[in-house]
Prior knowledge:
Radius of gyration: 16 Å
Number of helices: 5
Distance between the termini: 33 Å
Number of domains: 1
Largest sheet: none
Number of strands: 0
Amino acid sequence: MKNLILVFLGGGLGSVIRYSLNYIPILNIHRYPITTSLSNVIGCLILGFVMGQLVKSNEIDSTSSILIGAGFCGGLTTFSTFTYENIEMIKNGSFIESICYTFTTIILCSISIYLGLQLTK
């Protein structure tokens, strides 16, 4: 039960932060879902860092992993919104934007996980 509460609390905080990104004026760029990309990249960076720290300290099954990994980063990042935005781009005929968005997100999230892990060394 404790783990469920940790995921609930972390996920709630991550979701609130992700939603709040929509209210930062500079992030409201027309036709490109920058807030979704930003939340995914930040979440990947945090997850990489936390998991790197936990592996380094041999505490991979710790409370931190559940609270921050499954909870906070799970609430902050959003594959469903990313996919929905891609489908909307395709439906609107923005094929190039959709391809760029997909590759940019995958590449930046991969780099962010890597950088997060590197920060623990």
